[in-house]
Amino acid sequence: MRAVRAGRDRREVAELLGVTVESVTDWWAAWQAGGREASVSKTRGRRVGEHQVLDPDRQQCPDRP
After folding, report:
1. Distance CA 47, CA 14 (A)
2. What is the spatial distance between Cα 62 and Cα 65, in angstroms, rounded to a whole number?
3. Rounded Cα–Cα distance for residues 39 and 29 (Å)
């Protein structure tokens, strides 16, 4: 965000970071809405143990039929 605030073009920042311009735009919008805390990535995915397909015994020994 420092580069964008300093006046660098979002396209240039995206190229430097190897991301899309849309990502930089999203990050900038989050930064403007709530600063650093709003722009930090949140934990993604399911919580550990949630929706387990295998029972605990099968999880410990994957080679067991």
Report:
1. 31
2. 8
3. 8
Residues 12-38 as b/e (b if ≥16 CB within 10 A, e otherwise) read: ebbeeeeeeeeebeebbebbeeeeeee
What are the Cα distances from residue 1, in Å, to 28, 41, 47? 7, 14, 30
Residue pointed to by tokens 């949630």: 50
Its pTM stands at: 0.53
- Tokens 């190229």 sit on residue: 15
User: Model confidence over 15-51: pLDDT tens digits?
Assistant: 999 999 999 998 888 888 877 766 666 677 777 777 7
Tokens of 40: 């930090």
